[in-house]
From TrEMBL:
Principal location: membrane
UniProt record, GO biological process: respiratory electron transport chain
Phylogenetic placement of the source organism: Bacteria, Pseudomonadati, Pseudomonadota, Alphaproteobacteria, Rhodospirillales
Protein name: Cytochrome B6
Subcellular locations according to the entry: Cell membrane
GO cellular component term, pick one: plasma membrane
Signal peptide: none
One Gene Ontology molecular-function label: electron transfer activity
Organism for this UniProt entry: Thalassospira profundimaris
Alphabetical list of SUPFAM superfamilies matching this protein: Transmembrane di-heme cytochromes (SSF81342)
């Protein structure tokens, strides 16, 4: 029986903290990109601090969050990543569907988290001599050589982020158009519609408390805010 003809069932896929992180990160990155182009450096800095808080939250949630949000559930070895990748063009959704990130998508998430973390951290060391007459909150605590290196990283790394974001969007659109799977909608609502014979794998997800997730995010925001405030004296 084909996917389209199978009886369908709605299953819960993504918890609220993961969805909040995802879309808040999108907003923060877009804001940072736009304000940089418009030379709105104060807002650019706030967007960067927001990215740092979000990344810190996602790292913590990757160990204590819902079962399919934990790194251990979606970081797979190269054999599984390659095996999954070769199935993508012609594989059925029964073969390609995971109760969370698939092996290829999981590594894309990890790479994106690492890249945006590098971008946010390097921005803390931005020097007014090379970056829009703005001093990052930690630039006074490092040598001029370190600040220069951090500025180079900040200006170069953003191009890698653009590439990975482009791949991420392409993958989502590919699944939507070629596989008729709305992964974007699932990240909005937290719910995905699958054939009934695939629903059992989603029933195994153990969801963590969203209240705990929000509390962790707030604490991460306070940590970043406190660090910036103390660093600026």
């Amino acid at each position: 029986m084909s996917h389209q003809m199978s009886d369908q069932k709605k299953v819960k896929l993504w918890d609220f903290p993961v969805r909040l992180f995802h879309w808040a990160l999108v907003v923060a990155i877009v804001t940072a990109w736009w304000t940089n182009r418009q030379l709105m450096i104060d807002i650019h800095a706030i967007a960067g601090y927001s990215v740092l808080a979000l990344v810190l939250f996602r790292i913590i949630w990757g160990f204590v969050g819902s079962s399919n949000a934990r790194f251990g559930s979606f970081i797979k070895g190269p054999d599984k990543v390659i095996g999954y990748a070769v199935k993508i063009p012609t594989g059925s959704m029964a073969e390609l569907t995971y109760a969370g990130h698939n092996p290829a998508g999981g590594w894309m998430v990890v790479v994106l988290i690492v890249l945006v973390a590098i971008q946010a951290i390097s921005g803390l060391f931005a020097s007014e001599d090379t970056f829009l007459f703005f001093d990052g909150p930690l630039v006074a605590h490092v040598s001029s050589d370190v600040a220069r290196i951090m500025n180079w990283i900040h200006r170069t790394n953003i191009n890698l982020i653009y590439v990975m974001v482009g791949l991420h969007v392409f993958a989502a659109l590919f699944y939507l158009v070629a596989k008729r799977e709305n992964l974007i909608g699932a990240m909005v609502t937290g719910v995905r519609t699958v054939p009934v014979e695939m629903a059992a794998r989603f029933a195994q997800i153990r969801f963590a408390s969203p209240v705990v997730g929000i509390a962790i995010l707030i604490v991460c925001g306070l940590i970043v805010w406190g660090m910036v405030t103390v660093a600026r004296g």
